[in-house]
Specification:
about 250 residues, alpha/beta, Rossmann fold, 2 domains
Length: about 250
Amino acid sequence: MARLRAAGCVWAEEEAVLLQEAALSARELDDLAARRVAGEPLELVLGWVEFLGRRLVVAPGVFVPRRRTELLARTARDLAAHGDRAVVVEMCCGVGPVAAVLEGAAEVHAADLSAVALECARLNAPGAALHLGDLYDALPAALAGRVDVLAANAPYVPTGRIASMPAEARDHEPRMALDGGGEGVDLHRRLAAGAPAWLAPGGVLLVETSPAQAGLTTAAMEQAGLETEVLVDADVDGCVAVGRLSRAGAGTA
């Protein structure tokens, strides 16, 4: 505990308990504590992160889900509950927090560029179909026009702000999971532009964003012909842009 406190860990006592629970021996505890003291995020040291009452597997080289993403997951879950075996896709899924929450309640697909992240997603959402690739290129053509809920926590940190992020994220999480381009919404624009070809009539695109960038995210959705709104949950610091395709029909992939 003293080592953690000296290293600047704000919740040193709580972290010490978690590290002790995770270690199988005194030597392993020493190794885990050394990793934490060196600045590695606690979640990566432990190998899990708590998310909506679950422990999700994480590993070095992946993006660690934040509590703010609970708004995205809850919204996707609520929307999926209105349909009969809804088809849900978690794009830019990382370790699959949305897919994990929907496990067993829908036909769930998850896609990401990172094979390491998908291996974690396989453990967190074993019933989901996983797809490796760049955004919609990763999805099977059979999903075109069938997706009821398309949820994404795509990176939205502007490139110029990466250097000012906390070292735990900047130094230990993949750049592609953080960097959203000049205005922070490059991938949001790509997601919005491609969504109508994949959404079912009345289907919904959900994209986690920030209050400062929500206008840019919804503008991209509106340009793609989606009807938009913004959801905010101050309790978890969450912000989600919502774009709904009219029931007149979807496009073609």
